[in-house]
Each structure stands twice: as C-alpha cells, then as structure tokens.
Amino acid sequence: MRLTCHFLGAAGLACLWTSAAAAAVDLSGEIGVVSDYRYRGISLSRGRPAVQGTLTLAHDSGLYAEVWASTLERPGDPTSSEVDFTAGYEKDLSEHFSIDLSGTSFAYPSAGADNYFEATAIVTTTRGRASASAGVSYIPRQRATRDEQGRGHDNSYLFGTAEYGLPRTPVTLKAGLGYERGAFDEVEHGGKWDWTLGGEVKLKPAKLGLAYVGSNAGAGDRHALVATLSFAW
C-alpha cells in the first residue's frame, strides 16, 4: 500500500516537472499551530496543541503534489507524528464549477501498521464571495482497517463545506458537515457525524482561525473550540 501511494506521489511530481517547459510550476507552503488537532471531529492530539505544516507543488495543468505533517499525541508515545502524501488533479469545469480528484497516503512513522491509503473526489461551486463543496472519500480494505479479529473493512466518508467572505473585510465564515461509515467511524452501532462552524481572518502572511468542532463519537471530548495560527508563503 505504501509503495502504491508513494508511486502516485512520484508520478504526480514527475508529470509536473516534465511539463514545466509548457506551463508554470508553483511551490507554496504553510506552517502553524492548532490548539487541538481534530480530524473529522475526533481529537488526534488528546486535546493538546499540535504543530502542522504543508508543502504544495502545483502545475498549471491542474496536477499537484502535497506533503502535510502534524504532531500527534498517542498514549505511551510522546514523539508521534503523521505525514500525509497527496497527488491529485484539479480542474475548472466552468466559470462556477470545479473538480478535485486525489489520492492520499496517511503515514505514521512510529506506528507503520496504521498507515493507509484514501481516494477523494470533490466538486466545488463558487458564486462571488460564496463557495460550497461536496465530496466523498473512500478507503479500501487494507492492513490498517482490520478489526481485532483480523477481518478487513472499508470506510466511506461523505462531506460538505461552505464558505463566505464578508465584503470589505479579511474575514471568511466557514461551516462543514460529514458522515463516516466503516472501519474508522468510531461509533458503537456504526455511523459517525462530525461538524464544524467558525471562521478565519487573513492578515498576510498570517491567518487566524477559530472554530467549534464536534462529533457524535467519543465520550468527554465530543466538542471543542479550536484556535489556529498559521503563516503562508
């Protein structure tokens, strides 16, 4: 699985560089800290701050490759981290619609058995300062999705997001809703919902964010107010 995912990332990078003569390649990045690393409503930092960073290589053709990393908090492992490798293709279908198709390898250096691959498709519509997206992510059966009895399970995640930039301000309001079913839904009888509601302020190169994040999974940490500070270049 890891070889397949790394091949996808390498293939994406190769396509970007071999076509560089015909179109521009853009390298960008971002680094920051969050008060709680929440992924699909679940805390992966045990309610503590996490440092995160991204490097993205994007080609005018729509191909892109990205590396994203974050610190984690795992019981008994204070040096845990996550590194995600993504290769994808983004294209404008019209003035108001675009698609984004990608594959991501989720890697955990201190716990290789938890590594897995996920495929994602997103459709986005934009009207002025407002935008909305709908997407689906799918994880096929693999080693990381086996249960305690060794049986493999797949995982599906349906999600939608919406954004609106307030006129004459650097403020963008954001909302999201997701539904997960399968190996990672973490709900006793299956079917996990998660949601987020908040906003961000862009003060280049800094970005400040605050969001209420929650889910119907877990016990005492189902909801949290998450603050974000990041710098982009």
Mean pLDDT: 89
- Biggest beta sheet attributes: 12 strands, antiparallel, barrel
Shape: globular
Span between termini: 32 Å
Number of helices: 1
- Give the SSE string: HEEEEEEEEEEEEEE
Binned, the helix content reads under 10%
Strand count: 14
Decide which structural class fits the backbone.
mainly beta
Radius of gyration, taken over Cα atoms and rounded to an integer in Å: 18 Å
Please indicate the percent range of residues in DSSP E strands (runs of 2 or more): over 45%
Query: Going across the major beta sheet, what is the strand order?
Result: 1-4-5-6-7-8-9-10-11-12-13-14
The parts where pLDDT drops under 50 for at least 5 residues are: 1-10
What does this structure look like?
With 233 residues, the protein is mainly beta. It is built from 1 helix and 14 strands. It has a 12-stranded antiparallel beta barrel with strand order 1-4-5-6-7-8-9-10-11-12-13-14. The protein has a two-stranded antiparallel ribbon with strand order 2-3. A hairpin with a 2-residue loop joins strand 2 and strand 3. The protein is globular and about 55 Å long.
How would you briefly describe this protein structure?
With 233 residues, the protein is mainly beta.
From the structure above, extract its key features.
233 residues; mainly beta; 12-stranded antiparallel beta barrel; two-stranded antiparallel ribbon; 1 helix; 14 strands; 57% strand
